[in-house]
Amino acid sequence: TGEPEGKLTYASADYAPGPAGTARIPATLLALVRNEELDGMLQSMHDLERTWNHKFNYPWTFFNDVPFTEEFKRKTRAATKAECRYELIPREHWDMPSWISKDLFDESAKKLKEQGVQYADMLSYHQMCRWNSGMFYRHPALKDYQYYWRVEPKVHFFCDVDYDVFRYMRDNNKTYGFTISLYDSPESIPSLWPETLKFLSEHPEYIHENSAMEWLTDKDGRPEHYAKANGYSTCHFWTNFEIADMSFWRGKAYEDYFNHLDRAGGFFYERWGDAPVHSIAVALFEDKNRIHWFRDIGYQHIPFFNCPNSPKCKGCVTGRLTDGESFLYKEDCRPNWFNGVLDWYDLHTTKKGPR
Ligand code: GDP
Ligand code: MN
User: Fold this and answer.
1) DSSP string spanning 330-354?
2) ipTM value > 0.95
3) Pick from 39, 46, 36, 30: which is nearest to 80 by CA?
4) How large is the greatest C-alpha to C-alpha distance in the chain, in angstroms?
5) Is residue 73 part of a domain?
6) How close is the Cα of 131 to the center of ligand 2, in Å?
7) Which among 115, 181, 199, 273 has most CB atoms closer than 10 A?
8) What is the extent of the structural domain holding 148?
């Protein structure tokens, strides 16, 4: 426990910032955000600029399903030295696809709501999850970028990070980077795993020989989740933080997988999130060694944290959870990912001993 391992920090000259305004890796900070979330977006930007981006000046790309207001543009531009771009999502990337029935959506939403599924009857939330799953990387504004770092309004970054994380991704052959991993609400995805298995039976060749299949199909972590999700642990990377290589999403395996899921209808008739969809895909079709835990990036999206125990981090106080916060443990899926490699319990709790 303690400081991030030496191999996880890259403050060497190799990773030093480029000249102001230049981005040495084709990468962008990426935010899908509503005009009404301007204040929350500014807060996230201030944190990320302060801890990291002022050293690198990677451009920001903002996406919206309606045009950004002048106020939004003016204030976000003022929050960074880097270039900012404001992009409208084309209708065909956002609208409910033609093969989805609105009546069936309304009916399913009612049932899901009764089961306590959050945002079940909010159509735009379903659209957002679908866009984040399979659409964003097709936007023409991203065509010259390979990597992105997804940022949501109202998140926090706590730690000074001195190296270029995009360069780290590229030089170390990483496809996907995460900070937090959680169990999902199984009621939101009952047919996601069965549909995945159907897809895999048609395309067994897409499963990587060094996949993380065992992480996806672990039944012991939370047996009720596994049962309700029909054979999926529900473990996923929490995608409100995501640093990834879009070549993976743009590749054939993911394209075929996404199209299969999209046709199956679960983005609307259930409430599939982009988190389980991305996570299942990257865990199945990619070498698990290309998935990287950014242990050294202190992060919060309410109510979960990733807190390194390091002097480089300010205000990431719940790195050690109090007993009152212990309900958060059972949502955390990182121990399954590390599979005993790290003494996770010791890292995150005030008390010693078995969970
Ligand atoms: P939660 O984190 O699952 O509670 O969902 P959020 O409300 O934070 O939404 C996830 C991300 O998508 C955030 O960055 C939101 O700003 C964005 N978002 C969600 N719905 C919409 C929408 O209808 N339009 C736009 N432009 N952004 C949206
Ligand atoms: Mn959010």
Assistant:
1) GGB-HHHHHTTSS-HHHHHBSS-S-
2) yes
3) 46
4) 58
5) yes
6) 15
7) 273
8) 1-89+135-175+291-319
Which pair of tokens denotes residue 317?
């106080």
Q: Which two tokens stand for residue 201?
A: 């039976």
The rounded distance, in Å, linking the Cα atoms of 115 and 117 is 6
Which tokens is 289 given?
A: 């060694």
Any domain includes 224: no
* Centroid of ligand 2 to alpha carbon of 221 (angstroms): 25
Give the CATH number, domain containing residue 39: 3.90.550.10
Active site positions, annotated:
242
User: Residue 199: inside a domain, yes or no?
Assistant: no
The answer to whether position 228 is within a domain reads no
User: CB–CB of 207/284 below 8 Å?
Assistant: yes
Which residues, in sequence order, are CB contacts of 62 under 8 Å at separation 6+?
Answer: 31, 32, 33, 41, 68, 72, 76, 84, 85, 86, 87
**Ligand 2: distance of its center to the CA of 155 in Å?**
8
Find the residues whose C-beta lies inside 6 A of ligand 1: 32-34, 37, 64-65, 124-125, 128, 152-153, 240
Q: In 26-65, which ranges are E strands?
A: 27-32, 60-64
Rounded Cα distance between 270 and 250, Å, is 25
> 58: which DSSP letter?
P
pLDDT band at 26 (very low <50, low <70, confident <90, very high): very high
Task: Extract the tokens encoding 132.
Answer: 């984040």
The pLDDT assigned to 324 comes to: 59
Q: How many domains are there within the chain? A: 1
